[in-house]
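input
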Amino acid sequence: MSERQQAGGPQRPWWREPMMWMVVGGPAVVVVAASVTAFIAWNGRDPEVLRAEGVRQSVQAKDPLAPALRARNHANTPAEPGR
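output
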């Protein structure tokens, strides 16, 4: 027990205890920082990424194997003699 409690002095309210702010303050700061980061990430998306997502969805709608076939065909093409 602290000297104040032993002497019969008045107890401080919970919001005036520094240890309480250390215990609650750390996680509270992390929650706020994560919320701000998520907001920035969601609203600050790169337009090029959004365009690529649209292209990918349009290609998948036409033929889901098109990217794989294109990559396979490119890998099997012989090298040009001049290069």
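quick obs: Helices lie at 3-6, 18-43, 47-62, 66-76.
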